[in-house]
Design brief:
Largest sheet: 8 strands, parallel, barrel
CATH topology of the largest domain: TIM Barrel
Radius of gyration: 20 Å
Number of strands: 10
Distance between the termini: 23 Å
Bound molecules: flavin mononucleotide
Number of domains: 2
Order of helices and strands: EEEHEHHEHEHHEHEHEHEHHHHHH
Strand content: 5-15%
Length: about 325
């Protein structure tokens, strides 16, 4: 199944394959890397609308765009229409091309304050928040949500229709309910009623970790495109590979050897320059785990680099390692 271009308001997305927003992971250095490796569309981590207006420095860092390679969106979370509208204006003034509303986050920290997926429990409140955001800006607004709060309230089609009428230009649906958190498997078929309820494009999300899964998710949901999250951890090239495949092209091979070494060092240096050495070092550790742990001899290198505080020593250790392909990639290539 090939996919075609979609329009998000006035923006054209030639290949609807997106890197999912993941707080603490898909920050600017990661988005930049994913975009340079072919991800056609990237979304910032969620930024709390109130927090952003009080200009916490980290929020500002998270917002800056991924670079010119991909279309990018900034995601806002919030529970008060007033703050969402204010923050939306700020995001637009900052040069964002697309603004995404988070209505999918299951975290108690977020739902406790009645934002993220908690908004799906109260469609009237969700609608007032959506309307305030859409009316505050002239850039396209998109919405990311789950199937509903729990299996007894799968109201994503209802919210989708309300959102479309309010002027939302694209939807992303994670095929789980909020009560599931990340348990079980994403139900791509359950996204189809959302696709059928609206005329705007819908991306299907959840558990898409390779091109075969992307094709199945598209076929089962009828969605116009896919969004990929956890599969990209330690694999910022994955969205680009899936985009290649869905266009009928041979995907770029997963990097290994000196190409992968350079890429990991580039990611590491990007984190240091974005956050400064102390926070950058800490933030890099989880990425090292994902890049290294499943490679032959990688676990030992990981142990060394996560204990090290001197960036030069870390880079020397990364440069010394031979960066073999993953066993899975070798099997795929055979
Ligand atoms: C660590 C982590 C952080 C996330 N942060 C966000 C976020 O900031 N905004 C959001 O809409 N979704 C967030 N998500 C949800 C993902 O965007 C995505 O919907 C979910 O992981 C399912 O897709 P996947 O199976 O491809 O990972 C996060 C998920 C993870 C694992």
């Amino acid at each position: 199944m090939a996919i075609g271009p979609i329009h998000i308001g006035g923006e054209r997305l030639a290949v609807p394959v997106a890197l999912a927003p993941m707080a603490g992971i898909t920050d600017r250095p990661f988005r930049r890397l994913a975009a340079s490796l072919g991800a056609p569309y990237v979304v910032s981590e969620m930024v709390a609308s109130r927090e952003m207006l009080h200009q916490r420095p980290l929020s500002a860092i998270r917002l800056t765009s991924a670079g010119n390679e991909a279309l990018s969106a900034v995601q806002l979370a919030g529970c008060e229409a007033h703050w969402m509208a204010e923050a939306a204006r700020r995001v637009e003034d900052g040069g964002a091309r697309i603004l995404d509303i988070n209505m999918g986050c299951p975290a108690k920290k977020v739902t406790g304050s009645y934002s993220g997926s908690a908004l799906m429990r109260d469609p009237d409140k969700a609608l007032s928040l959506i309307e305030a955001t859409v009316n505050a800006v002239s850039i396209p607004v998109t919405l990311k949500m789950r199937l509903g709060w729990d299996e007894n309230s799968m109201n994503a089609p209802q919210i989708a229709r309300l959102a479309e009428v309010a002027g939302v230009r694209m939807l992303v649906v994670h095929g789980r309910t909020r009560s599931q958190f990340y348990k079980g498997t994403a139900d791509w078929r359950a996204v189809r009623p959302v696709v059928e309820a609206v005329d705007i494009p819908v991306l299907v999300n959840g558990d898409i970790t390779d091109a075969a899964a992307a094709r199945t998710a598209l076929a089962q949901s009828g969605a116009a495109g896919v969004m990929i999250g956890r599969g990209t951890q330690g694999a910022p090239w994955l969205a680009g590979q899936i985009a290649d495949d869905l266009q009928g092209n041979t995907p770029h091979p997963s990097p290994e050897g000196s190409t992968l070494r350079d890429l990991v060092i580039e990611h590491y240096e990007g984190l240091l320059s974005c956050y400064g050495t102390r926070i950058g070092l800490r933030g890099a550790r989880k990425h090292f785990g994902w890049y290294l742990s499943s490679r032959e001899g990688g676990a030992e290198i990981r142990e060394r680099v996560v204990r090290e505080d001197d960036p030069k020593t870390v880079i020397a250790a990364l440069a010394d390692y031979h960066w073999p392909a993953l066993a899975d990639d070798l099997a795929d290539a055979a």
